[in-house]
Please model this.
Amino acid sequence: MTSAPRPASPRAARTRGVPEATVARLPVYLRALSALADEGVSTVSSEELATAAGVNSAKLRKDLSYLGSYGTRGVGYDVGYLVYQVSRELGLSQDWPVIIVGLGHLGHALANYGGFVSRGFAIRALVDADPDLVGVEVAGLEVRPIGELEQLVARHGIAIGVIATPATVAQEVCDRLVSAGVSSILNFAPTVLAVPEEVEVRKVDLSIELQILAFHEQRKVGAAHVTRELVEALPGRAAVSS
Amino acid sequence: MTSAPRPASPRAARTRGVPEATVARLPVYLRALSALADEGVSTVSSEELATAAGVNSAKLRKDLSYLGSYGTRGVGYDVGYLVYQVSRELGLSQDWPVIIVGLGHLGHALANYGGFVSRGFAIRALVDADPDLVGVEVAGLEVRPIGELEQLVARHGIAIGVIATPATVAQEVCDRLVSAGVSSILNFAPTVLAVPEEVEVRKVDLSIELQILAFHEQRKVGAAHVTRELVEALPGRAAVSS
DNA sequence: TAGATTGTTAATCGATTAACAATC
DNA sequence: TAGATTGTTAATCGATTAACAATC
Model:
């Protein structure tokens, strides 16, 4: 590495990377934009779009500014154009081939989930270790034996794997997916997966989400208690304003 | 309890609040701790537990320090005691009654998901708008008509609602849950829900997770391109170290 | 030109991390 | 006491937000 051809400023910004927090919100913006497009809305202000997406407008504008300057001052954003730009940034211009491993209740639900198929993804293979499930048709696709995992990944050029197996076999499945060439994994099994650092793992953990809710719920329920305890701990104090 | 209502330092810390990022990791620690307990491990260092949970040890210690000082310097943490403390902090000492609205593929999967039931939660009611589903038994519970939502919430003292309906009706379902007294909602429908600020909503959005993966996948695929472009843009340069 | 709204700056806030004193 | 490991400090990093100059 020597002198370095310094790239132009906006390119540099993109190269330096869109912040993770922003990336996580782009799909939300995209959904809101698609809804607006379906309603026939052609122009939207950052204020309106932010409301639809459930964020504040400063955050929205900052997020969009990482992609480029796609708005018009005094006017707003062209809905169709922004749909295109956000889709492109997210890599949804092409269809990503997906494999689902594990066709239990959850895998079954995922295979049938419209949102997967609708935009940017195509489920190309379903595999399961249970012989009773092999051969069954789910969402128009035949469930194949887990032994075919590698060849299915290769044949369909699959880059994204969805793990919907029991936790006990998730790491093994993950290892096989990775060595077959899958480099992005969506994990529904309640386990921490170990992967090489170039592999991206996202985790969806239903019981974790519930436990986070329980924490907040407890706080609400507890609030009355705590207040009462504090009041009782104050000798000669009649009440505390709430 | 006499004069000094001034809470001791750790209590004060707890009152000031556990950071959200920490709360989100506590369930992960709890799972790792439970696994260790099942293996008969009685003591664990922050280094070991951090590895099991997939975080670094400094973060783990900082997180645990918000709950109190439950470790022993030079020794580590007692697994059983820490399970108890983390569970208590998360509000899992009691069982939270849960209602699931929408018994399609996903709702069905959720009702049967072991992780929900296992610790701290009890699914008490299932409702659906589809007359064909009403009366069907799912996970040992009879699906009731959506019209009974309010009375089921009241009867079972339900505080946590899971929305697994189509996006089109999610807001309406949410409104009904909230006015029935539910104050924590786990939303699987791909919509932004509007709720009063005292209501906590968590969102699980399968297609958003996939889209985030697509973004990173695109970067990897694109990386070769970008590198090549840069190299070609450098006259007289042979190669760039990767 | 006047009004509207973006894109960006800079201040603030919260989360992460390395390092190490405290202490078992 | 010596070795080990926690709990905490402080530095750093990244994300959020209000405010406003740029500009349509």
About this structure: Chain B touches chain A through 73 residues (CB under 8 Å). Confidence is low (pLDDT under 50) at residues 1-15, 224-242 of chain B.
